[in-house]
Amino acid sequence: MDDFLKQINAYYSLSAETADALKAICKIHSFKKNDLILRAGDMARYYYYVRKGLLGYYTINESGNTIFKLFFEENSFVASTAAIIEHKPSLFHIIALEDCEVIMYPAQVFRELLIKYHDLALFHIHYLEKNWVVKKEPLEIDLKWDTAKIRYIKLYENQKLFKRLKQHHIASYLGITPTQLSRIRKELNF
Q: What is the DSSP string of 67-82?
């Protein structure tokens, strides 16, 4: 749990009392590669923290194609956040792309702790601001304006993540076919 609390404290430091209350609702769980952690259409009941492994966040379009939105590596917090906030079924699937070990904690109980512990609420605010506003906004702009080639180059620059992804994950993330991805890779020659 130390890595989990360290990551939380990077956003906002928790008191020992708050940390103990949070740890009390957490459990460690392992998922095998290709396990579906959350299915689109199901209620999102948990928040997850990735201790080991890689998770993917995706949807399936009307043509039956898988469209990856995000990938989550170690030390990432993962959830169908909008579904939790709105108390609606998730629009996205969360899948283990590698064998994973996560810390999971129930969303409803966590949200009750947010009311009780001011420092935990401040962590949550800082986390949401940084990850759902500051980081997400440029991604949305890139998706609207950048070509698949430019987005591929940006993904390629993150070698730690890039090397862990299969080509079909990359093509899906870029919103192109594997054939189009092959052309881009050939053109860039890296």
A: EEEEEE-TT-EE--HH
The percentage of the chain sitting over the pLDDT mark of 70, rounded to a whole number, equals 94
What's the pLDDT score for residue 189? 87
User: In angstroms, how far is the first alpha carbon of the chain from the final one?
Assistant: 39
Which of 74, 153, 183, 36 has the alpha carbon at shortest distance from 162?
A: 153
Q: Looking at 16-30, 31-45, 141-155, which range is the least confident one?
A: 141-155
**118, 99, 121, 85: which is closest to 37 by C-alpha?**
99
Return the pLDDT at 143. Answer: 61
Q: What token pair was written down for 24?
A: 């009390």
Work out the burial of residue 54: count CB atoms within 10 Å of its CB; fewer than 13 is exposed, 13-18 middle, 19 or more buried: buried
